[in-house]
Structures are given as structure tokens and as C-alpha cells.
Design brief:
alpha/beta; eight-stranded parallel barrel
């Protein structure tokens, strides 16, 4: 198992400084989430030979590895021009992953087209079905490239994606039926995935290679009054990534079930809520994750 830090709260650090800080906070691996000087949201990676060389040198100097890279592109956009741009960016990202010794690629099923176009569209193009069909076209194009390069891409149903629940997501992954496509489980999204934590994790057995750890409250609790958003009828939705123990995830159930299904992939700390104490949060999360790893993996 690889224990990684998602350093989104540390994105102000240079890549070289990030390697040092990751090691100092107790992690041996980096989960490279989007940042403007590397994997930029929605557009071409900001990566060139000198940056790659410097990043590789720093990882070697501080003895940390790159466990994952998270590209975020609109591969599920029903607007074909957006989808084609996403494909171009994915192909470049695959080249970079090969240059970095094939870390696990992680992403989301996608929210479809850009909100600027989708929110004003009056032709019904931005439907879950249209987004899913765009995703299938993208998989037809990308999966053979991933297989050829020996890479693995792990995807998750994200809140606000065209698929939010785990069961249909796993059905799609199994239908694609490729060793290059696997599943992620993001703990703070658990209450979107399904109502039974253990059952939802179990349905990923055989497909799960990546899990993120952070806490959250059950937004459906208290007759869906756990959070009260004004004005009434607002479509705002709560989405949290808290330190373990600050929400309602049952961590014994989470780690026990991961162990039961034979999980041995990348396990990352993925807290966003506390940038003002990012270092302390990371150290705390590393300690608590190790507690449960020791408890259930021995």
C-alpha cells in the first residue's frame, strides 16, 4: 500500500519545496492534484523538460515517490469541440505519466460541458445521457492508448457528475472491462455514493486501486436538515473534506471493509478545509491513517 498526501492545501509551494514538505510531514508519496504549474484544471499541462527534470531530482533528493496524478478534463462534454480538446490534453498527460514512470492516473466521470455553455443551453444537450455517451466515446479513444502504455486510470463518481452513485459507476467500469480502467473511492463522498458505507465499499471489490481519506457530515441526515441553506429551495449542496473525526464517517467500518476486500492500492490524505493549519492537518491525518492501517493490516 502507498500512503500519499494530496497537497492541494500546499499548492503555493514549488514542486521542489513540495517534495521536502511531503517528507517532513511523514508521507513517502505525493498525490499530484491540480495545480497551475503542473496539471492545470481543464487545459494543457504546464509541463516541460526542465520542470520535469527538476521535479524528478527533488523527488529523488527527498526520497518521495509520485503515487498518482489527477488530470481534470471535460471528456464527458456533449459539446464535441470541448471533448476533443479534452482528448488532446489527456494524450499529452499520458505522455507525461510515462516520462514520470507510470504513476496511477486518477480522475472523475465528469460534470459534462463547461458551465458557461451548459447553464444557458436551451436545446437539452446537457443531459446525463448525453454526458455518458460522450464519456463512452472518450473511453473508446483513450483506453487503447492506456493499455498500450501500460498505464492505469482510476475514476470515481463525483458529486455533481452525471453519475454520483457507486453502483452504476462500477457497472460502467466492469463493462469497459480493461485492466487500464479501475475505480477510486473518495471517503468524503460516501454519502453521495450510497447509504451503507460497508456495502458501497464492497461493491468496488476487484476494481478498487485508489482511496482518499477525509471526513464529512451526512448531508442527508436529520430528515435532510443536517444543513439548512437559505433561501429555501436553493440547489446549493454541501461538500466537505475535513480531518478524520470531524465528520460522520465510521472509520472502523471504512478501513475494516477495505481490508476485507483486499485493498492494497494508493491511500491518500485529501483534506481541503484547513489551509490555515495545513501542515498540522497533514501530520494528524498521517498518524490517524497509520493507526487504522496497523489495526486492520497488522
Amino acid at each position: 500500500m502507498k500512503i500519499a498526501l494530496d497537497p492541494y492545501m500546499h499548492r503555493h509551494l514549488s514542486l521542489e519545496q513540495l517534495c521536502r514538505a511531503t517528507k517532513e510531514m511523514g508521507f513517502d508519496y505525493i498525490e499530484m492534484s491540480p495545480r497551475d504549474d503542473f496539471v492545470k484544471w481543464w487545459t494543457r499541462p504546464r509541463v516541460y523538460s526542465e520542470r520535469l527534470a527538476s521535479f524528478k531530482k527533488a523527488m529523488k533528493e527527498y526520497d518521495v515517490g509520485l503515487a498518482t496524478i489527477q488530470p481534470m478534463y471535460r471528456w464527458s462534454s456533449p459539446y464535441e469541440d470541448e471533448r476533443q480538446v479534452a482528448m488532446d490534453n489527456w494524450k499529452r498527460m499520458i505522455e507525461i505519466a510515462v516520462e514520470l514512470d507510470n504513476p496511477l492516473l486518477i480522475s472523475e466521470f465528469g460534470r459534462g460541458g463547461s458551465p458557461e455553455r451548459s447553464n444557458v443551453d436551451r436545446q437539452g444537450i446537457h443531459t446525463p445521457e448525453a454526458c455518458e455517451n460522450a464519456f463512452w466515446r472518450s473511453m473508446d479513444e483513450l483506453v487503447p492508448i492506456l493499455e498500450r502504455e501500460g498505464l492505469v486510470l482510476s475514476v470515481e463518481p463525483h458529486p455533481e457528475d452525471w453519475v454520483e452513485e457507486m453502483n452504476p459507476a462500477i457497472e460502467i467500469i466492469k463493462t469497459i472491462n480493461s485492466p487500464a480502467l479501475k475505480a477510486s473511492y473518495i471517503a468524503p463522498h460516501s454519502f453521495y455514493y450510497g447509504d451503507d458505507l460497508a456495502e458501497t465499499i464492497r461493491m468496488t471489490q476487484g476494481e478498487l486501486v485508489h482511496a482518499r481519506v477525509a471526513d464529512t457530515f451526512n448531508h442527508k441526515g436529520s430528515s435532510q436538515l443536517r444543513y439548512i441553506v437559505n433561501p429555501p429551495g436553493s440547489n446549493a449542496r454541501v461538500h466537505q473534506h475535513l480531518d478524520m473525526g470531524e465528520g460522520e464517517i465510521d472509520w472502523d467500518v471504512f478501513f475494516k471493509t477495505l481490508h476485507e476486500i483486499g485493498f492494497d492500492g494508493v491511500l491518500s490524505s485529501c483534506v481541503f478545509a484547513w489551509e490555515e493549519r495545513a501542515d498540522d492537518s497533514a501530520r494528524f491525518m498521517r498518524d490517524r491513517m497509520q493507526h487504522y492501517i496497523n489495526k486492520y493490516w497488522g
